[in-house]
Amino acid sequence: MKMKKVEVVIRKSKFSEVKDALNQVGVEFITFWDVRGVGKQTEGRVYRGIVYDTSTIERIYIIFFCREKYLDPAVKAILKSARTGEIGDGKIFISDIDDAYRIRTGDRGDKAMYLEGEE
After folding, report:
1. Are 14 and 84 in contact (CB under 8 A)?
2. In three state form, how does the secondary structure of the chain look?
3. pLDDT at residue 119 in the model
4. Can you tell me the mean pLDDT for 32-37?
5. Domains in the chain and their CATH numbers?
6. pLDDT band at 53 (very low <50, low <70, confident <90, very high)
């Protein structure tokens, strides 16, 4: 069975919604980091006479792996829960995974990603 790697960059304010939406479509394990990025927008904001650089943007980076059959529901869940309609909503990147191993048992392939009996 084919496996996919999904990498997502979203607004920090949307993390809880995205996490809950992914859980509802069967994505039970994600890894995430607080990250910063630099976008095309380089103008500063002025507060009390001091110009602050707003080109560095705080985001959440999420990564998870899933079987191909779960990919479409997961992507739809992310698109729906992360969208604000404004510039900077984020990106989704999808890659093929050639193989996986569960270190504890030595299970290989998509069996390494799920408990025995799950399909």
Report:
1. yes
2. CCEEEEEEEEEHHHHHHHHHHHHHCCCCCCEEEEEEEECCCCCEEEECCEEEECCEEEEEEEEEEEEHHHHHHHHHHHHHHHCCCCCCCEEEEEEEECCCECCCCCCEHHHHHCCCCCC
3. 56
4. 93
5. 3-113 (3.30.70.120)
6. low
CA dist list (Å): 98 to 5, 67, 85: 10, 12, 35
Q: Is the pTM of this model over 0.90?
A: no
Q: Are 80 and 22 in contact (CB under 8 A)?
A: no
Asked whether the beta carbons of 17 and 81 are under 8 A apart, the reply is yes
42 against 105, higher pLDDT: 105
30: which 2 tokens? 């994600």
